[in-house]
């Protein structure tokens, strides 16, 4: 956040140059704020972020210049995470599971087949589970998370090779996963052959067959055009995923309270609108993607859940997250194992 002084050009020089306008120049913004993300411009994350940036700039009366950098323009998730940690970037939206590389406790909202529906998701992440995670983020890093997590959605598996109908279909599958200990553990439990690749490189990894499969919500599959390089889409709903809207604490603290309030209000409000957009898209996109040639199939969640159970996946993460955090999760989901 660079602080620039408002410049005024009312000066004695003007007297000698009567042709010059005596109006002061428009004040330059005092705070320039950079926000980066990994999604295409057409994804609701960016349509809402752009709208939000305009609202922040307007309500700050030009004191803030809030800029959105979509689509990995500033680097991939790993790059942007280190930029926001150092303060080179002010804000960044990141999956709780990728944030797990820095704050392991954050991964708890991604537990496989935990939330039965969005009702459970929002109660948990807007309630005690989210509060627990945000506390861990603030305590364990130079970052903090705004109150309302943004939506990514329920994740589905796509492949170029075969539909996934049972857990056995995942055996040995070269599937791209995001950089996160939790994702590695989950797809190892499925006996797949997971490959950690940042989203910035996913399209080309699939195109060149470095990976044969990936998993993401439909809104991403469609806006990132992954259907061009994937044939099958298996509706597994294997986990819900979101994006914490992260800020660098020090750079946010440079803002006076009135500007902090404006930024906070608009970020949380945009997050709520983005949630609605993503849900609508994820509900309606199957038909569009089918028309573009993708083959869809449904799956039985219980088979996949049993596989994870049998592999000791839930027991392992229960132990890692600890009794207290696990109890907070189960307060919303009911008993998980
Ligand atoms: O990397 C992914 O797959 C994505 C876009 O869903 C996340 O940011 C977790």
* Count of the domains: 1
CATH superfamily: Bacterial extracellular solute-binding protein, family 7
Give the terminus-to-terminus CA distance. Answer: 46 Å
Q: Average pLDDT value?
A: 93
From N to C, what is the helix and strand string? Answer: EHEHEHEHHEEEEHEHEHEEHHEHHH
Q: Fraction of residues in helices?
A: 40-55%
Q: Tell me the overall shape.
A: globular
Pairing-aware structural class of the strands and helices? alpha/beta
- Beta-strand percentage range: 15-25%
What is the structure about, briefly put?
With 337 residues, the chain is α/β, with parallel strands linked by helices.
What does this structure look like?
This protein is an alpha/beta fold and 337 residues long. The protein has a single domain, classed as Bacterial extracellular solute-binding protein, family 7 (D-Maltodextrin-Binding Protein, domain 2), CATH 3.40.190.170. The protein has 13 helices and 13 strands. The strands form two sheets. Strands 1, 2, 3, 4, 5, 6 and 12 form a seven-stranded mixed β-sheet that branches. Helix 2 packs antiparallel against helix 10 and helix 4 packs across helix 13. It is globular, with a radius of gyration of 22 Å. The termini are far apart. The structure holds (2S)-2-hydroxy-2-methyl-3-oxobutanoic acid (X2X).
